[in-house]
Amino acid sequence: MTEKTVEIKNKTGLHARPAALFVQAASKFSSQIWVEKENKKVNAKSIMGIMSLGVAQGNTVKLIADGSDEQEAIKALVDLIDSKFGEE
């Protein structure tokens, strides 16, 4: 299992377009991937789950992956978050 805590830096947080990009990226991996915010944990491959977290700019989330490509999955998702989802 691989875990990484990251801060959401883009203006809109994980809403609408960034959430869709996040789910698309997570879905490319065979590992099980979760996003945890304030003790609420959701499937990173579920758009409704991601949206339900209400992640805003400045919030921190924990990414958790478990599977054969868990390290690659976490790296790809952290890179996507760090790129601010192409915003700005």
UniProtKB/TrEMBL annotation:
Function according to Swiss-Prot or TrEMBL: General (non sugar-specific) component of the phosphoenolpyruvate-dependent sugar phosphotransferase system (sugar PTS). This major carbohydrate active-transport system catalyzes the phosphorylation of incoming sugar substrates concomitantly with their translocation across the cell membrane. The phosphoryl group from phosphoenolpyruvate (PEP) is transferred to the phosphoryl carrier protein HPr by enzyme I. Phospho-HPr then transfers it to the PTS EIIA domain.
Keywords per UniProt: Cytoplasm, Phosphotransferase system, Transferase
Major localization listed first in the record, in broad terms: cytoplasm
Record-linked Pfam families: PTS-HPr
Coiled coil: none
Organism phylogeny: Bacteria, Bacillati, Bacillota, Clostridia, Thermoanaerobacterales
GO biological process: phosphoenolpyruvate-dependent sugar phosphotransferase system
GO CC annotation: cytoplasm
Localization terms from the record: Cytoplasm
Keyword hit for Cytoplasm: yes
Name of the protein this chain belongs to: Phosphocarrier protein HPr
Domain HPr: residue ranges: 1-88
Any one GO molecular-function label of the UniProt entry: transferase activity
SUPFAM superfamilies listed in its UniProt record: HPr-like (SSF55594)
Highest taxon of source: Bacteria
CDD domains named among the record's database cross-references: PTS-HPr_like
